[in-house]
Design brief:
Layout (H helix, E strand, L loop, with lengths): L7 H27 L3 H4 L1 H26 L5 H31 L15
Helix pairs in contact: 1-3, 3-4
Protein name: Multicomponent K+:H+ antiporter subunit G
Keywords: Membrane, Transmembrane, Transmembrane helix
InterPro entries: PhaG_MnhG_YufB
Length: 119
């Protein structure tokens, strides 16, 4: 059971998803480096990590499902945990930074919360 055992169609799919996941993660890292302030920098790595990890997990699911001849869904649990924990971490970081900036009087922080929207 190795990579040469993969059929051509599966190898192409796995390669596509791996490269796409790596590129999305790279874009998130570049966004972290290039965006101007902390609040803008929060979005790029969280989106890159979630989507990039998801694409890499899809590649892993295809590869190991084809090699073992049965569906493997261990990666679904990993994807579920990444999808749940990344936005929660983003919100906690943003809330802590917003509180700190407002207490210190930093001009980079928004002065007040936006009004709630009605449904």
């Amino acid at each position: 059971m190795s990579a040469p055992d993969l059929p051509l169609w599966a190898a192409i799919l796995v390669s596509f998803f791996l490269v796409a996941g790596a590129l999305v993660t790279l874009l998130g890292s570049i966004g972290l480096w290039r965006l101007p302030d902390f609040y803008a920098r929060l979005h790029a790595p969280s989106l890159g990590a979630t989507l990039g990890t998801g694409l890499i997990l899809v590649a892993s699911m295809i590869c190991f499902s084809v090699l073992q001849g049965r569906p493997l869904v261990h990666e679904v649990l990993i994807g579920l945990f990444v999808t749940i924990t990344t936005p929660v971490t983003l919100m906690l970081l943003a809330s802590a930074s917003l509180y700190r900036d407002r207490v210190e009087g930093n001009d980079a922080a928004p002065k007040k919360d936006p009004p709630p929207t009605e449904l």
